[in-house]
Design brief:
Radius of gyration: 27 Å
Number of strands: 4
Helix content: 25-40%
Order of helices and strands: HHHHEEEE
Distance between the termini: 68 Å
Strand order of the largest sheet: 1-2-3-4
Shape: flat
Strand content: 35-45%
Largest sheet: 4 strands, antiparallel
Length: 134
């Protein structure tokens, strides 16, 4: 009987351990590389290549060519941040008392747009970025 319990316990333990799976990376973590700081740190005119840009920021949202034939990549990312807070308090004075509750919910949105131009050797010739918060 002890051997059956040991085998049963071992089987359940092995089955539960093999069922562990790493969850996918949240979308917010995947898009978090496109920040104003990362743009300034990772883009250098005349040095940064398309491969560097792809490695740092991923695929662009839009690819076009400007009037002079330079390839232009446009990135646009939006993020929404929600924050809630609550505050509870209670105070008393002899023969008098008061209870109060306060709560709040705040949301804000942030948008970053990055436009990068490349020459015919796939090197950055110019870039512009803009961040808006509303």
């Amino acid at each position: 009987m002890k051997k059956i319990n040991i085998y049963l316990f071992s089987s359940l333990l092995i089955a539960s351990l093999t069922g562990c799976v790493t969850p996918p990376t949240p979308l917010t973590n995947q898009n978090s590389q496109l920040t104003q700081g990362n743009v300034q740190m990772n883009l250098v005119v005349g040095k940064t290549t398309k491969a560097d840009v792809l490695e740092n920021f991923g695929s662009p949202n839009i690819t076009t060519r400007d009037g002079s034939g330079q390839e232009v990549w446009t990135y646009q990312r939006a993020a929404q941040v929600a924050q809630s807070s609550s505050q509870h308090g209670y105070w008393t004075v002899i023969l008098a008392g008061k209870s109060s509750d306060a709560s709040g919910f705040e949301t804000s949105s942030r948008m970053i747009t990055l436009i990068i131009k490349f020459n015919d050797k796939d090197v950055v010739t110019d870039f512009r970025s803009r961040t808006s918060t509303f």
